[in-house]
Design a protein that fits this description.
mainly alpha, 5 helices
């Protein structure tokens, strides 16, 4: 055998390839898959609608004058007139005071005399009949004279003689009352009759009769 140099057997190990690229690829694919799942869930899963704000009625709100037949996603707002609410009265309306009529013009004495003269003349004539009448007939005449005295009281005298007219009329009415009582007793005294005539004469003198 020859001593020629024999080649030594050398074990050559291939270099280990790095796995970093594969790891990053797996991570990227995982992130992409997760993103796809999230997108699918967002678009296809039912979503609970957000609560809409509840509209509260407004005192001054007015409905739109016209409504659109087809709703559009983005309607263009149109100005609408605002109706102002009329104030509600807290109390019932009060009636306006009625105008007070002006006072009647003050009559003059002569006009007033013409108004009351028929009653005064009837009184003078009636007292003349009383003197010639019995108790019952005289009582009926005196009743008529008392009614005329009430009419004289209702007649408004001029202010110039009013302060004298009413006291004189009151005296005349009182005398008629005394005369009526005497007639009820069946005897009309001359003194009672004269007192009534004098009271009537005072009334007639106030109006110039």
């Amino acid at each position: 055998m020859s001593d020629e140099h024999q080649p030594e057997a050398v074990w050559v190990f291939p270099e280990k390839k790095s796995n970093k690229g594969r790891i990053w690829l797996i991570v990227a694919l995982s992130v992409l898959a997760l993103a796809i799942v999230l997108v699918v869930l967002y678009f296809f899963l039912p979503r609970t609608p957000a609560p809409q704000p509840t509209a509260t009625p407004s005192a001054t709100a007015s409905p739109s004058p016209s409504s659109s037949a087809t709703a559009t996603p983005t309607p263009t707002p149109t100005p609408t007139p605002t109706a102002t609410s009329e104030p509600v009265p807290s109390q019932a309306p009060t009636e306006e005071p009625k105008p007070v009529p002006p006072p009647a013009p003050d009559p003059d004495v002569s006009s007033f005399a013409g108004q009351v003269r028929p009653w005064l003349d009837d009184a003078a004539t009636g007292l003349g009949y009383v003197a010639d009448s019995n108790g019952q007939e005289a009582a009926q005449i005196i009743d008529t004279l008392q009614q005329d005295a009430q009419r004289l009281s209702d007649a408004g005298p001029p202010r110039s003689i009013a302060s004298d007219w009413y006291p004189a009329l009151g005296d005349y009415s009182a005398k008629l009352g005394e005369l009526r009582s005497a007639a009820d007793n069946g005897v009309v005294s001359q003194s009672a009759l004269n007192g009534t005539k004098n009271a009537l004469k005072a009334l007639r003198s106030l109006v110039g009769i």
